[in-house]
């Protein structure tokens, strides 16, 4: 962080993330891991549904069962976040987000549609004023991030220091994001050296 210009903050809030492979991981196991995160001091937990574009708009949708169980287990003070992993069309994403917000207090919805489909991403963002839309982990350059901002208009960007090739491109992305007043919440593809790299980068972000 010193080589990147010095630190802006001393602490970075983290969340616990649990993958469920479109329902192949049991709700009980998912809840157990979320509760363990909360017991370790995490104030936010995220369920990664891993629906993907090739399983678009699942019916029935397992997302609600997981989120209902997580909310019941962790209580109302813990932030529950949902990552659809590009699993919906715009219309279904909007319906899903509204229901998740109204019934379970979900305010954070990641990759509701394909993050390469900027038209639908913009539709989702425009329709939801109480739910923050997050995307960017599949953007590998500042130009892709610029398109996601200007065309998809997501609320929060989550580039990955590994996927963008390191600190140099990430620094360019950060400065670009500040021009559009878009906050960055780094995606972390590898929970080892990438964690350290992400922490050092986030320490420098204003």
Percent range of helical residues = 40-55%
What's the N-to-C terminus distance? 13 Å
Going by helix content, strand content and strand pairing, the class is alpha/beta
Q: Radius of gyration, Cα only, in angstroms? A: 17 Å
Assign an overall shape: globular
Number of helices: 7
Q: Could you describe the largest sheet, including whether it forms a barrel?
A: 6 strands, parallel
Q: Tell me what portion of residues adopts beta-strand conformation.
A: 5-15%
Output the strand order for the largest sheet: 1-2-3-4-5-6
How many strands in all? 6
Order of helices and strands: EHEHEHEHEHEHH
Rounded mean pLDDT score: 97
- Could you list the spans in which at least 5 consecutive residues all have pLDDT below 50? none
In short:
With 206 residues, the chain is α/β, with parallel strands linked by helices. The chain is built from seven helices and six strands; from the N terminus they run E-H-E-H-E-H-E-H-E-H-E-H-H. The relative contact order is 0.12.
Report on the structure:
Helices cover 42% and strands 11% of the residues. The chain is built from seven helices and six strands. The mean pLDDT is 97. The two termini are 13 Å apart. The protein has a six-stranded parallel sheet, covered by helices on one side. It has helices spanning 27-39, 63-74, 90-104, 118-127, 142-152, 167-179, 193-204; strands at 16-19, 44-48, 79-83, 108-110, 132-135, 156-157.
């Amino acid at each position: 962080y010193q080589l990147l210009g010095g630190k802006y903050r001393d602490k970075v809030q983290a969340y616990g993330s649990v993958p469920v492979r479109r329902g192949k991981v049991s709700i009980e196991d998912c809840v157990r891991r979320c509760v363990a995160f909360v017991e370790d001091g995490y104030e936010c937990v995220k369920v990664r549904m891993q629906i993907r574009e090739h399983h678009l708009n699942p019916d029935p949708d397992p997302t609600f069962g997981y989120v209902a169980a997580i909310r019941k287990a962790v209580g109302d003070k813990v932030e529950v976040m949902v990552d659809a992993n590009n699993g919906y069309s715009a219309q279904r994403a909007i319906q899903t987000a509204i229901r998740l917000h109204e019934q379970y207090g979900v305010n954070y919805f990641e990759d509701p549609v394909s993050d390469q489909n900027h038209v639908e991403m913009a539709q989702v963002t425009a329709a939801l004023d109480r739910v923050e839309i997050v995307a960017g982990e599949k953007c590998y350059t500042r130009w892709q991030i610029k398109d996601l901002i200007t065309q998809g208009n997501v609320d929060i960007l989550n580039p990955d220091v590994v996927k963008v090739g390191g600190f140099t491109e990430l620094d360019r992305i950060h400065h670009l994001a500040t021009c559009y007043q878009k906050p960055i919440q780094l995606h972390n593809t590898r929970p080892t050296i990438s964690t350290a790299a992400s922490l050092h980068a986030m320490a420098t972000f204003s």
